[in-house]
Amino acid sequence: MLRRVLLSAAGSDRIKAAVVRAPFSRGVVNRFVAGDHVDDAIVASRQLVAHGLLVSIDRLGEATTDAAQAQATTDAYVALLKTIADAGLAEFAEVSLKLSSLGQALDVDGEQIALDHARTVCAAATAANTTVTLDMEDHTTTDATLAALHALRVDFPGVGAVLQAYLRRTEGDCRDLAGDGSRIRLCKGAYREPASVAYQDRADVDLSYVRCLRVLMHGSGYPMVATHDPRLVAIAAAMALQAGRERGEYEYQMLFGVRPDEQRRLASKGEKIRVYLPYGTQWYPYLTRRLAERPANVAFFLRAVTTKG
Ligand code: FDA
């Protein structure tokens, strides 16, 4: 219930304005976001790499309905990838990309425009000697994002994608995408979705995650286990063993600011672990999803809408 309230707040301009203005917002944002600028992402990446962690850098922004903005985001990703290479971080850092930030939601030819922009970003990643993973957004975009993944992999076979265990379709998508060279980041799912397409009960989502993970671990692709859930982390370790996978033939992934001690613990055990590291000024929808994962944080929103900033 609280999760639904918080995810609804993501779409409210009034609440957004109040939260962005609220004096205490910055502290909360700083927990989950590296900073406003690409340099902040590079500094944070270096700190994580120094602790034995890998990173996937995300430039915040989504659901653009402005073609010029989609082009600007593409240019920013190309510049980010050059910065990663110049900083000597390509071995440790890839990028995560939302197709809606590249124009997927534009009224005319949005999917084609986003695909063309994504090709440009993938070419820049190849030149920088690193990879791209496509984030997965709400279920109305799943087919288009998977179609883009297939098209991109023809020329850029290293492109990966996120699948969300809360969607009823995902076990089937895992079967389709468990083959050679496929990189799948499996997460639970962070959007507000109807019961017709998504499991609503947390236990059902967890069971789906386990079924999906089994398919990926026993396939020939590269599973990326994106969860902070201690039970699922333990199950992933057991499944990897059972499937005959060595360390490095799969990886764990967690969000910047969430369970950092666990991130370092896994790294210190020799596990491959990557931190999803967002930066940029468009943090509001991302922050809303992070707060919705901890309903205790509803107090944050209540303070934001009742405090004059
Ligand atoms: P769960 O929510 O059950 O949390 C397990 C435990 O982790 C909690 O009890 C708490 O201790 C801790 N925790 C989790 N979230 C927290 C938070 N925000 N603040 C503090 N503690 C927290 N989703 C999506 O729809 N599309 C996508 O592309 C991605 N991409 C993505 C990449 C990576 C690398 C990760 C780790 C996650 C995503 N997600 C995502 C988000 C994902 O769907 C999910 O919402 C969160 O990971 C939370 O789910 P958990 O699996 O961690 O379990």
Describe this structure in words.
With 309 residues, the chain is α/β, with parallel strands linked by helices. The protein has one domain: TIM Barrel (Alpha-Beta Barrel). It has 13 helices and 8 strands. The protein has helices spanning 2-9, 13-21, 25-32, 38-50, 67-86, 110-128, 142-155, 170-176, 202-218, 230-242, 260-268, 284-292, 298-306; strands at residues 54-59, 93-97, 132-134, 160-164, 183-187, 222-226, 251-255, 273-279. The protein has an 8-stranded parallel β-barrel, surrounded by 7 helices. Strand 4 (160-164), helix 8 and strand 5 form a beta-alpha-beta unit. Helix 5 (67-86) runs parallel beside helix 6 and helix 9 runs parallel beside helix 10 (230-242). The longest helix has 20 residues, at 67-86. The protein is globular and about 55 Å long. The model has no long low-confidence stretch (mean pLDDT 93). Bound molecules: dihydroflavine-adenine dinucleotide. Dihydroflavine-adenine dinucleotide is lined by residues 135-136, 162, 164, 185, 187-191, 226-229, 253-255, 258-259, 276, 290, 293-294. Residues 135-136, 162, 164, 185, 187-191, 226-229, 253-255, 258-259, 276, 290, 293-294 line the site of dihydroflavine-adenine dinucleotide.
